[in-house]
Write a structure and sequence with these properties.
The complex is a heterodimer of chains A (322) and B (291). Chain A is mostly helical and 322 residues long. Chain A is built from 14 helices and two strands; from the N terminus they run ααααααββαααααααα. Chain A has helices spanning 2-24, 27-51, 59-76, 81-103, 108-128, 130-133, 155-178, 180-190, 192-197, 202-228, 238-251, 257-273, 281-295, 303-321; strands at residues 146-147, 150-151. In chain A, strands 1-2 form a two-stranded antiparallel ribbon. The longest helix of chain A is centred in the last third of the chain and has 27 residues, at 202-228. By secondary structure, chain B is an all-alpha fold. Chain B has one domain. The chains are: A mainly alpha (322), B mainly alpha (291).
Amino acid sequence: MAKIKGGYLGLAILFAVMAAMPFALAEYRLTTMLMMLIWIIVAVSYRLLATTGEFSLGHVAVMAIGAYASGIMGRQMGMPFWISAPIGGLIAAGFAAATARPLFRMKGFYFLLGSFALGEAVRLCFRGFKFPFGGEGGYWYIPTPSIGSFTFDSTFSYFYLTLGVAAACLFVLYRIDQSRIGKAMVAIHSQDSVCESLGINILGYKTLAYIVASFFAGIAGALLAHYMTTASPPQFAIGNMLLVLVWVVVGGVNTFWGPIAGVFTLYSIQEQLRGVFVEYMPMFYGIILIVMVFALPGGLESLPARITEWRRARREKLAKVV
Amino acid sequence: MELALQQALNGALLSVFYALMAVGFTLIFGVMGIVNLAHGELYMIGAYVVWLTYAQGILPFPVAILAGAGIVAGIGMGMERALFRPMRGKVLMGAMLSVGMIFILQVFVATTWHVGLMKNIPPAIKGSVTILGAIAPWQRLMVIPAAVALIGGLWFFLRRTKQGRSLRAVAQDPEAAALQGISIDRVGLIAMAIAAALAGAAGGLMGPIMRVDPYMGHSALIMALFVTIVGGLGSIEGAVIASLIYGFMIAFITAYFPQSIASPGTMAFIIGALLMFIVLAVRPRGILRRG
């Protein structure tokens, strides 16, 4: 019980700190923070699917579905953001529901490749079809969200909008993670044949994880599209998908906090290095990824446990010497 | 008719190109249980070596290709030793490492030789022939026999030499092969060197035809993935058959898909991706294998 409360406290502290950011940072840094929040939603929702053991390479394409759906509904039908974004999420979830059956015929590495092919097909549809998606240049003039006469047209106000949406998304995702369903998903990953013999419906849980994760990815996509006022194929290219993968792998997938730590750490380092050498950024990511896979396969989240273990080992060694 | 013949020539060219990439890709998986997603970057470096040596007038074209293949083979062996050997059989982890290598190699090339400049490789053999009205530049035409010779050489190596047989033995059953006294480490190194050399040679051969830039490996890798999966991961015969299917399919879609609906090049990729998806879902182990 105490542990669960601690989790909510952690979320509250995280968002309180984020809420203070606009007063501490210059405007261009605020844009970075805003993007970071969007990618945190993507990374945490990605983890939901990853806990079942399946790593997808189509998650950013699903995000694009939410972005385009919400953008098109906003511009063509004049639908307000508050309705178009959830519907965008639902359409992304619907896509997931429709593709789950063929996709989950694959496992592990084949799933990685299958999701990649599917995601690439989706992204190329956005690029290839000028109508209705705008083709290579992307879909433009997506309206900025507004309430009554107030529009979220400054980075400052949009930051708080993003913060609110992210807080709601993370709260729900945390609830799922702590629920029986979340535990069952983790169990599938570690022992799938045992689970099956206990009567846990593996395919059902995987499908559920995929659909829910896609819904939140769709919402994140809508946030991005309405902030940029465009949705274009390069925003959802495989390079960005690989970045999400790096964040999640570096952060770790065993706890809820891993992906958040991954996005936060790498984004901060990236910001510090930006002025120095932008061109070398991907190389830095590549090196970090390789080092992490070898040195800390459990991700950043396993660091505290590793340090405790290391200190205990050292103490024992010292005790032996004495 | 002329257009059809022209596209048939293009299809043959694309087929052998995909085959060169996919055969190496599938070989690494078969022997080491590693999927090297940086395979496209090895191809890119092969093209860069030809640009650096042949286009600058330092080496003649065939020697430049051999040099490219050799250098890329060296990089591949380095990757095998440092990254893939400890991760042998752990497909997901190996794939992560190769993603890291994609970033590293791209940035290395982009920062060393810069992105914006045009990197034209002049054709080594000028002129063209006209076959029944279809125009075939020699530079494109000669890729076909060169690639066929390389793949034939690999086939001969795998079927007729002792080393090649040990490679196939490891691919079939690593433990049994090790019990026969075959060094798995050595075999892995050889497989990686061959695969990398083929990718490098593909880069060198295609360099004068394609646009040379640090990100050219991306589309090459995607095609190699499609072809490898459809052919069945680990199966060389399957990869060759699938590359024929894909080569001709892409060439004809690009030529005949109506421009008014969607750009034909993109459409070809979409159909390619969907075909791979369907094959994965229906027959996950490829067209040649059951189950």
